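Two entries, shown back to back:
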Amino acid sequence: MKPPRAPLFRSAAALVTLALGAAAVPAVSQTARATAATAATAEAQWIDRATVVWRVEHTAATAEELRFADGGTLRLAPAALTDAQKAAYPHLADRPAYRLDPRDRGKAATALRGPLTAVQRAADDRDHVLHRTGVQIPGVLDDLYADRARRARLGPVFHGGRPTLSVWAPTAQNVSLDLDGRTVAMRRDPGSGVWSVAGSPDWRDKPYRYRVRVWAPSVGKTVTNQVTDPYSTALTADSARSLVTDLADPRLAPAGWASLKKPRAVPLRDAHIQELQIRDFSIADRTSAHPGQYLAFTDRGSDGMRHLTRLARSGTSYVHLLPAFDFGTVPERRSDQARPGCDLAALPADSDQQQKCVAGTAGRDGYNWGYDPLHYTVPEGSYASDPYGPARTREFRRMVRGLAHAGLRTVMDVVYNHTVAAGQDGKSVLDRIVPGYYQRLLDDGGVATSTCCPGTAPEHAMMGKLVVDSIVTWARQYKVDGFRFDLMGHHPKANILAVRKALDALTPAKDGVDGKSIILYGEGWNFGEAADDARFVQATQRNMAGTGIATFSDRARDAVRGGGPFDEDPRVQGFASGLFTDPNGSPANGGRDEQRARLLHAQDLIKVGLSGNLADYTFTDTGGRRVKGSEVDYNGSPAGYAAAPGDALAYADAHDNETLYDALAYKLPATTSAADRARAQVVALATATLSQGPALSQAGTDLLRSKSLDRNSFDSGDWFNAIHWDCASGNGFGRGLPPAADNESKWPYAKPLLTNPAVRPGCPEITGASAAYRDLLRIRTTEKAFSQSTAEGVRRALSFPLSGTGETPGVITMRLGRLVVVFNATPTRQSQTVPALAGTPYALHPVQAHGADATVRTSGYERTTGTFTAPGRTVAVFAAGAAGR
C-alpha cells in the first residue's frame, strides 16, 4: 500500500459533466451556469443512455428531470433496474431508477457537453425545486462511446513516417493541438468521441499539448485546459509538454536492442524477485559512474551491479523496480533539486536533527518512491541523464539491457489505481480532459481517495483500456518482463485478466517479445470503497486464485515478523523475532501461556505459507486437528486462499513498513548480539525463500539493510533510503531518529536502540547473512521439489511430520521430497526426531555443507533414530541419499 498522506485533491462537490457527440454546442449562459453550480453534490448517476439512478423517491406530487444549458430539459420517469444493470452496478442495485423519456433522448448530445443537474420538483410547478444535484457520467459515456473508442489508437501513431495524434475527449466542446507554439485544429469522431489530426513528417519530436475546451464541474465553469497527452510516448523536462515521438525510431534503440537476449524465462511459481528503487540502488555507491540514474545498471563493475550479479547466479531471477514511469513529485532537472544543508554524518546516531534537516527539503529534493503517477507510459525523467525526451527512452532500455546482461529480467511496479492529482490541479491530466470520468467517484460525487490519492476507475472502459494499452507498450517497446500492480484489489479482476490476455497475444515474431512469459502479480488487499466486491469483482487475494496472477501474501509475513506496522508498541514479537523463546519483556506480548499459543499459531500460518498458501493443503495443526489451509485463521480470514503454487507471493519485507532488519531491531531483546540478529534475519528470509511459489525480498535485505527504523520512507530522502553495498559503510542503521511524520510515536523505543552497539552490525554479520541467504537460494533453485506445478504435487511432496500438540515452539520441521528442512528460530540448539525416517541416510545439503555459514555446518543427523539437529537461529537443509552420522 501507499504512504498515508493528505490527498492532493478532494472534490466534495462534483457537478459532473456528461457527454454525447454533437456537431455544435450552444454557449452556456450565465444563468444556466449559476443554476448548475448551486448543486453541491453529484448524487445522480446516468448509467446508460436511457437510465439514471438517483436516491430520491418519486410520488404523484413530484416530477424528475435533467436540466442542462439554457433551460433544456430531459424528462425522467420512474423505472426499475434490470438484472443486468444490477449486476453491472451492484452498489446501486437497491436505489430508485428513472428512465429517460424516449422523446428527449435526441437532446442528450447537447445536454451532455455542458453543465447538467438532476432536479426533483413539484409536479405542478417547474420553479418549485425540492432536490437538486449534479450527475455522474461514466456509465453513459461507456454506453455511448466505448464500443468504438476501445478500438481507437490513441496518442502519437506513425504510419510511413507521418504521425496522427488522437485523444479521447467526448465531453469537450472543442479540442485543438498546440504544436510547438502554433494551433492546429482537430476533428471529432462522433461515434467514438476521439479527436484526431494527421500531421507531416516534420512533426516528429515536436513538443505539443492538447487545448481542451470543456465544462469543469470542480470549478463550475467552462474552461480551456492546455493538457499533455495521457498516451504520451515522450516528454520534455518536468513533463511540461508531450513530444511527437515514435518509440520504433531506431535512434532511440541502444546497440543490440533488437537482438537482445534475455535470461531464460522463469515461471512465476519459481520467480525470486529483488525489489529495489532506482535511486536507492546507486546514489550512495561510490563505484557507480551514474549514481541515481538508469545508467547505473550499465556499470558492470560497480558494487551494486556485482552484488546483483551474485544474486542472479544464486537464483534471483527478476529485479522489481519501484515506479519508473513519469511521476509528479520530483523536480527532474538535477539543478532544481534541493539538498539537505546539514552535516548529517556528524550528528549523533539518535539525534532528531537528521530527520528535521531531511524533512526541510523533502518536497524539493530528488527523492520519492514515485507512487504519484503523472504519465503512465513514459520513463521518469529524474533518473535520466537528461530529462528531455529521447534520453529517457534510450537509457531505460539500456537499464533493461544491463540487467539482462547480469542474468536478470525486469519487473515494473505500476500504479494505475490513482493519479497524483485530479480536477483542475495543474498536475491533473486525465480529469482535465474528461472531467468526472477517469477518477472513481463516491456517492456524493467526490473523488475517492482510499488509495491515498485521487483514485482512478479501471472499471470504466477507457481507464481500463489505458491500463491495458500502457502495459502492452512497456512490454513491446521496453522489453519489460513482468508487472507488479500497486493496490491491485482496486482494479476489477476483469481488467487484470484483460492485461493477461493482451500480453499473451504478443509473440517474438510479431512483437519481439514472448508475452506469455511475462509475469504478473500485485497487492490484492481488500479495502476502501471497492471492498468486498461492492462495485465489481475485485482483483483481490481470494478472487485471483487460479488465474496464474499472484498476490502478495501477508499471512506468513506477519507470523514471521510479529505484530504489524501500526502497533503502538513495535516490540510485538513473532516466530523469527523471539516470541516465547526469547522474550523481550514488552507487556504487549502478553503472558507466557499467551505467547506460547500465539507462537504455535504463527507456526501454522508459516506452514500454510510454505505450501504456497494453498487453500486445500491439509496438515495437522499445533492443536492436533487435521485442517486445510483455508481453515487456519488469519485475523478472521482464511490463511490459505491459493488454488495452485504461484497464486501467492511470499515475502518477509518490502518497501512498505520497516525493513526486516529494523523490525527485528525493535522486536528482538535489546541484548541480542549483532551476530544473532543477522542469523534471525536469515531465518525470516528462509520462510519465504523455501516456500512453494514465488518470493520477493527488498533489495539489500540480505545485507541487513536498515532505514534507521523508518516505517514509511517514501519521502525520506537518500540519507535514510540509500542502499550501502560496501559493508564498511554499514547497513544504514543509526542515521538518526526516523522522520517524525510517521515515526515520532515510536521514538521512545527507537532512541535507545540507535545507540546500542549490539544492534549495529559489522562486515562479518553483513556479508555472512548475505552468503547464507544465497546458499538457501541456490538450494531452492536447484532442488526440483521446491517447484511443484500443481496443488496435488505439493500435497504429495510436502509434510510437517512433527506438527501437532507436541510440536516444539519456535521450530518447524518440513519434509519435502528427499529433503528435510529444520527452521530453528530459537536461540538454542534443537533436535527434532522423526521416527518414520529412522534408518534413512540424510546429510546436510552439499550447498550448506560446503557453504559460507560455519554455524550451519555444525548441524547433525542421527540415522538410527531419525534425529535432525540444528543450531540456534539456523535453517538447516538435509538431503537423503548420503550416509548420516
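entry 2 starts here
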Amino acid sequence: MIAHILPLADFTAPKIEYSELSPLLVVFGAACVGVLAEAFLPRPLRHLVQLTITVVAVLVSGVLTGMLMNDNKELIAAQGAISVDGPALFTWLVLLALTLISVLLFAERSVDGGLSAFAGQAAAVPGSEAEREGTAAKVEHTEIFPLTLFAVGGMMLFASANDLLVLFVALEVFSLPLYLLCGLARRRRLISQEAAMKYFLLGAFSSAFLLFGIALLYGYAGTMSLGGISDALSTQTGGDTILLAGTGLVAVGLLFKVGAVPFHSWTPDVYQGAPTPVTGFMAACTKIAAFIGLMRVFYVALGGTRWDWAPMMWIVAILTMVVGSVVAITQTDVKRMLAYSSIAHAGFLLTAFVGLAQAGNGVHNGITSTQAVLFYLVSYGFATVGAFAVVTLVRDAGGEATHLSRWAGLGKKSPLLAGIFAFFLLSFAGIPLTAGFTGKWAVFSAAWTGGAWPLVVVAVLSSLVAAFFYVRVIVLMFFSDLPADAPDVALPGWQTTSAVALGLAATVVLGLVPGPLLDLAARAGEFIR
C-alpha cells in the first residue's frame, strides 16, 4: 500500500500570536526553568535562585500585560483558543500582583525560628526521625516556587480560555499544584495532608462533572469554541435536553472552584489545613480566576440561554450568601471563619453575575456587572492576602494560634497588628471608607440595574449578619482581657511586612479613591467573542 502524502500547499501552519501571549509564556517558561533549577542546583542555592526566578517572571509578565493593556489589545489568539481582551488582561495583572505578594509570604523564614511555613520533606512521615532530621537541618521545599508559577499560569489561562477544552486543561494546570501546596504545612502536618486529600478528591469529582458537561455541550454544538456554542444556540432548534444537562454540569464544575453553596464543603477544611500563605494565595487568586472563567463561559457561550440558567444561579447566589454568613457566626477558628467569609463574598459576586443576565444584552447606563466584579475581586483579593499574612504572626508553642479564644486581648498586646486586622475585617464587612464598601456598592448597583433587586435585598441582609461576626472578632481583640498564656506576636521579616503593608495600602486607597480602578475596569470592557 502506498501512503498518500498531502501536498505541502494543503497544510496550513497554525498562527500563534506570541507577543500577545507573552505574559503566559513567560510564567510557564519560568516555571519550567524552576523545575530544572530544582533538579540541578545544590540545595543551599535553591531558595534564593527559585525566589529570584519567580519574582522576575511575575514582574516581567506584569510589565508585558500592562503594555498590552495600554495598547488596547483585543483578539482571539492561538487559533481561537485564548481570548486576549480587556477582562482577561485586567485579570492577568491582578493575579500577578497578588501572586507577588503571596510569594513574599512563601519566602518568609523569620517568624518561625528561621524556618518557612512549608515542610522540609513532604514524603517524611509526620513525627518520624526523618522529619526531625530535616527540621534540624532546616531543609526546605523550594519546589513551592515553580508550583506557584504553574498555578498562576493556569489561572491566567483559565480566565482567558475561549475554548472549553483549553478551559479544562487550564483548570487542571492550576488545580494540581494547589493540591500539592495545601499538603506541605510544616506544622500540623496531618491536618494539612487531610486538607490536601479532601481538596484533591472533591476537586477531581468536580472536574469529572465539568468534563462531562463539556462533552454534552460539544455534542449539542459540534464545537468547543465559546463563540461557536453561542452561534449554535441561535441556529439549532433541537437538543435542548443535552444543552441543559451540559450547562448544569459545567456550572457544577465552575461553581466548585468559586466556592459557592452547595459545592463549598471543601473550603473551610482546606483553608484551615493548608499552610497559611497558601491559603491566602488560594483564597484570593483562585476565586478571581474562577469567577472570570465562569462569567466568560456563561456570558459568551451560554448567553442565549440565560433565561434557562438564571433561576439556578439565583438559587445558588441566595444559598451562598445566607449559608456563608450564618455558618461563619458559629466558627471558633480564624481561618475557618475567613473561609465562610469567602463563601459569603462569592454569593455577593454572584448577585452582579446574575444581574447582567436579567438586563438582557448588557447595562448601558451605569456600572456593568463585569466592571463591578473586576473591582470587587481586586478589593477582596488584597484584603484577603493581607488578613492571612496577619494570621501567620499570632503564634504560640504549637505554631499559629488560630483559635478565636487565643486572639482575646490581642489589641492590648499588639495594637498595631490588631488594628490592621480589624481594618481588613471592616473592609470585608463593607464599612464605608474601605475598599470592601465600594466593592459591595458596585456589585449591588450592577445587580439592581440588571433587575435582580430581590438578590440585592438578600445580599444587604446577609451583609448585616456578616458584619456581626466581623465585629465580634474586633470586640474580642480590643475589649477582652489579655490572658496569662496569651500567644506571642512574631516579629515579621521584610517579606511579611511588605505583604501586610501592600494589602493595607490597597484596601485604604481603593476605599478612599476608587475612581481610577473603576475607570480601568470600565475600560476593560466586555468579553469578546
